[in-house]
């Protein structure tokens, strides 16, 4: 295997409902804004679209890919790291204590309530399901209800392997059933997910240690140091696990919604959405596909990538490339969520918009309606007043202007790529000082309300 580690997405108001077994579909290419009607399994769906038209069949295919396709990455997560055995536990043919539903929820995994049969829902509600038994987790996997993790079962009905999907990091649930159990919210970053702790369950950490040229205790310290909602996407290409001050390097899982019209898809602008999907599917999720990026042939900058030929990954069959168009279409259909009524002060937000567009200079880069730069949306660390540590790990050496739509839905974990600012107030204070804006406290409060309203 020549691929290692995992993860990782104007105004487009598209909401295509996916109902299996389409009876009529229509691809529309006009760019004028209007309301169209699709007939899908005898259900009428009215969809308002601004700026572009997506093929509903391709969107439906992409939804399936996003939610359920592992791209063959079971070869890594089970074949190398043996995480299926960690889930089972020693009592069920694996190793260790196993992963119960209670443990899974504690490390941020989510359960799709709509995938649970009514009888299972009733049993959970009545307390007749043991949420502390790893065998229950296996049954939830059998129901395909664990968001982002796909279980595979052999002829005898035993769990034989697991793989991960895009939804693991870029979907959550609305907690409508209970904490961690509810309806899927695709595109929302799972800021509860403790990726490092999950990976640390492997009984083959030596593989990762050998790959990174460190010892197993170091691997475990790094994995357990990321924390909820964070991941070090560059680790498996550059081997850099810590910041210059010695703290563990990790970035917040980004949103995959509201990316219509956005040029570059990552915090440091590695590439557009299609590029990053290919990068993640091959090098982070460890799927079986093809991937090329000559920039990774720089041994000084990306030593791990060079050692493992990550700049030119070739697999046959290719289980990734043919799915990229559908995956892109689905991601482009994911509108940013609308702030709930009462979640911000409307009058203050209106005042904040005036400041955002004018004296506070926010709209210099966060240009409505896409709320990032129109075109080349990268800036130097000096321009935005922070260190260049993360930017220097990217081929661009710069930071992307993060799109702000749906900001209210991804506040957990802080702001900026690494969550360095715990609150919006801290972000505003940073720019107030960096650009000498001389905002009053009232101005700052109004700006906060506007940011919550976007």
What does this structure look like?
With 454 residues, this protein is α+β, with helices and mostly antiparallel strands. Helices cover 31% and strands 10% of the residues. It has a domain at 346-453: Cytochrome Bc1 Complex, Chain D, domain 2, CATH 1.10.760.10. Helix 9 crosses helix 10 (216-225), helix 15 (346-357) packs across helix 18 (441-453) and helix 17 (424-434) crosses helix 18. The longest helix is centred in the first third of the chain and has 13 residues, at 56-68. It starts with 33 loop residues before the first strand and ends with a helix.
Write the SSE topology:
Elements: E1 34-40, E2 43-49, H1 56-68, H2 74-77, H3 83-88, H4 101-106, E3 111-112, H5 118-125, H6 134-142, E4 149-153, E5 159-164, H7 167-170, E6 171-173, E7 181-182, E8 184-186, H8 195-199, H9 205-212, H10 216-225, E9 230-231, H11 235-238, E10 251-252, H12 273-284, E11 291-292, H13 303-307, E12 312-313, H14 324-332, H15 346-357, E13 378-379, H16 381-384, E14 399-400, H17 424-434, H18 441-453
Helix pairs in contact: 1-14, 9-10, 12-14, 15-18, 17-18
Can you give keywords for this protein?
31% helix, 10% strand, 454 residues, Cytochrome Bc1 Complex, Chain D, domain 2, disordered N terminus, alpha+beta, two-stranded antiparallel sheet, two-stranded parallel ribbon
* Helical run tally: 18
Uncertain regions spanning at least 5 consecutive residues: 1-51
- Tell me the fraction of residues in β-strands, as a range: 5-15%
- Rg calculated over all Cα atoms: 22 Å
Total number of strands: 14
